[in-house]
Amino acid sequence: MTNTTFTDWNGNIQDIGPIYPFVGWEVLMVILIVAFLVWWHFMQIRMENDADREAAEELRNGDNLTRALEAEHTQERM
Predict the structure, then answer these.
(1) CA 47 from chain center: how many Å?
(2) What residues does each domain of the chain span?
């Protein structure tokens, strides 16, 4: 990466050299980012499904579901 001052902008760009860091790593970085995003979405969906499953199990135990539905219906009656 070049960090010198330019006195003449009419030169050849290849003589200046790379103008940003990590030149040539773009494809690898995109692949890594896409892989990370796919993994993150997979883990997020998995964690949300586990949380929903736990909440459903809690409602299935005893009369929790009945009490939750009654609490919802009491507000509708008002």
Answers:
(1) 13
(2) 26-77
